[in-house]
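Q: What changes when zinc ion is included in the input?
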Amino acid sequence: MANTAKNIFLFSVDLEDVRLRMEGGMKYKPRMEKMVEQYLLFLDKYQSKATFFTVGDIPDHYPSLIKTILSAGHEIACHSNKHIPVAEQTKEDFKKDLLQNLENLNKAGASNIIGYRAPIYSITEKTPWAFDVLSELGFTYSSSVLPSKNPLFGWEGFGEKPRMMNDKLLEIPVSVRGSRFLNVPFSGGVYFRVLPLSMIKKGFDKHFSNGLAVTSYFHPYDSDVEQEKFIHPEINNNWFYNKLMYYNRKNTFNRLETIMETFDCKIITYKEYADSFNGK
Ligand SMILES: [Zn+2]
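A: The predicted holo structure follows.
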């Protein structure tokens, strides 16, 4: 297996509270601060700085959270204001939502935000205008494309390498692996918990062997073994998907530590990665 200090792992958290997107969601216990604390401890253990793609309603509900993350040296980036997939918005609505996301995060203490991740990796070949809006608002990178077929959103044929989408903006697609028929993002969310560890390791190995960074997306709930049971939003009331939302959370950190140690990974922020990429 590839084993050099240059195995770049772009660890990231999509900082969102799913309860805020559910009718009656606030009756469930808040778990956000506890789970962020665990991610910060994990990052601290490996002396690493990572990126938190943050939804605009987070500062309203957790007033000190942004500052806690920033003071530990991590990056805050945007993840939309209302978590509406890009394809379900007009260009104007997308811009308005993003400006509000920026304003809310700026007010909470995050300045010079340059990164964006679309909700549910929802930038596809049908919404290329999103990149121009991002550039116009000063973003210099995005990590919003799932470069394969997917039941939700996907941009088949995008390719697995980051690339400039106009003269200012770098798109860093999420890492996928699989077969000719199905490629899935193995390094985050439900897939990281559900796929066999051997398959996840192969994904990391293949990317590192090809000189590619592995990009990822974790959520506060991905490691939460105490979250109450409810139907998560955006899964169309599918009981099977909902079961997967809770599956194997207890092993998320074990798996992350195994990956870190197997590959001697280096976690850096997306900002740092994008800056170095732009210089090449
Ligand atoms: Zn999200």
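Observations recorded in class: The chain has a mean pLDDT of 94.
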